[in-house]
Amino acid sequence: MRPAFFVQRIFVLTILFLSIGAMTASAAQQPNIVLILADDLGFTDIAPYGSEIRTPSLAALANEGVRFTNYHTAASCAPARAMLLTGVDSHRAGVASIPEAIPPEQSHFDGYQGVLGNNVVTVASLLEGAGYHTYMSGKWHLGKKRHQLPSRRGFERTVAMADTGADNWEQKPYLPIYKKANWFADGEAIELPEDFYSSRFLIDKTIEFIDSNSGDGKPFFAYVPFQAVHIPVQAPQTFIDRYMGVYDAGWEQLRQDRLARAVELGVVGEGTEMVDMSTTKSWETLSDDRKRYEAKRMAVYGGMVEAMDFHIGRLIDHLKATGQYDNTLFVFTSDNGTEVSGASDPNAPLAQFFVGNQGYTTEYETLGLKGSFNSISPSFASASASPLAFYKFYAGEGGLRVPLIISGQLVVNKGELNHALSHVTDITPTILSLAGIKAPDGRFGGRPIEPMIGRDLMPIVRGEVGRVYAEDEAIGYEVGGNAALFRGDHKIVRNRGPVGDGLWHLYNIVSDPGETKDLADAMPERMAIMSLAYDRYVLENGVLPVPVGYQQVSQVGINGLRESYGRQILVILVSMLILVIFLVVARRINRR
């Protein structure tokens, strides 16, 4: 062999070896990413944000990460999930509201389909295309037809509940608008196991998915959207027992206690005030029996939150045991604020008819267990959101502001709080940044797609900057006629009835997160600028006005009746019309 040829071969092989080594090192540097989404979790429902509920797993993640105190989502689950997974405004993604609540007047428009459109690409699709394994285990609520399921939106392995909610103990719908609880695995309908409890099952499946490919060296993305703490609020007895007696002082005291702890932790500032919600009753006017019952409703809620945290801890322990924890980034948040549609009195005749019709009971002794329908009252919901105003569905801070924790070895300023404005559309750009993936520019998979509007939060997580939105940048929001616009430290907001007054208000949500001081009259110029910015948001995103008298909760019932009994109702109406015509004709004949 000639020396020159030999040297050339050695050189080529060396370059090839170095290239393979570089590619392997690059792959090793891509972190695993776990996105955990709670359902209807209030701002101070976990210990790192001021809760009395034991959440040691989330507290550990908070200590290893950054807590965001000014993070906002949508006040309704499907729009929030659409923005979370795409980085695109919900109106442009096809999910202006939950599908169950869209009125017929809006349902003909592309942005109001209530399912994820083909004009957006999920973070899972982008990660899968970059070599990640992608897993989902939990609530989807972005479409339940075969082509709309997560197995067709970038997730390699899935177990998904497609509805707005379901029972946590068995495969059972929690609302009469569903004929069954729609669960799917890898795109196929499934039956749940006999020993099912939602939080345990979802983590079991997540661990199973991760282990199925653990030897191939590829990173993974695991999306875990829990059912906790969506209604029905249910938990194992051992977790419920830990909170018996904890809430005997009532919701007013709990609201004050949560505020005090949030101030102590620095989650909200000294001097933060709270408004009195009109839906919060006086605890002292209740009978002793009613106080006992209400306290247990909240005890079950606390148990369900802790059970979720316990199972998150199981996932963390498994990643540590398998040597994957140090290369894993965690993102924890909630889809929206506290649920408030639970009955004020579950034992009232109408409430009893509702739960009985679904095969549930509301008995004190079995509250939260299998066969029991439980929720927290609007009064305890105000404590769950403390010190914020309003809750789920509304655009007050209690509906939009929720916990956000980003945790892992890439976090520099561990254990710190960040008070800068952040938004649900920021999550996908942040995850892409973690993975070293560039967002697509206008096209993906041979089709045009909506551009992402969110910001990468990693400069905050790495301690490089304090905020990612400039003072003059605006973020618009609307669901069901409840609307807001954020700009700098300020927010304009409109909350419709029955709890809101339907008027626009202006607040400094940094110094006044409880939205107690309306600045509209004192700052007319800012109010005018932000109002114009909201008008632009409406035009640019195809936001439609809601019909007169529209209410989200009642529309869910109307749509459910239409879907379940539409043909029967049509037959009855046609029959009644024929009968009326017959009677009118008969009367005229008789007059002759």
Account of the protein in words:
The structure is a single chain. The protein has 592 residues and is α/β, with parallel strands linked by helices. A hairpin with a 2-residue loop joins strand 15 and strand 16. It is globular. Helix 5 packs parallel to helix 8. The longest helix has 40 residues, at 552-591. It is built from 15 helices and 18 strands. The protein has helices spanning 3-29, 56-63, 77-86, 123-129, 198-212, 237-241, 251-265, 288-321, 349-357, 378-384, 397-400, 427-435, 458-461, 524-541, 552-591; strands at 32-38, 65-68, 71-72, 133-139, 157-161, 183-185, 188-189, 220-225, 328-334, 404-407, 416-418, 422-423, 443-444, 447-448, 474-479, 482-487, 490-494, 504-508. Strands 7-6-5-4-8-1-9-10-2-11 form a ten-stranded mixed beta sheet, sandwiched between helices. The protein has a four-stranded antiparallel beta sheet with strand order 15-16-17-18, with helices on one face. A two-stranded parallel ribbon has the order 3-12. The protein is 36% helix and 13% strand. Residues 3-7 and 10-28 have low confidence and may be disordered. It folds into three domains: 1-30; 32-342 and 351-467, Alkaline Phosphatase, subunit A (3-Layer(aba) Sandwich); 555-592.
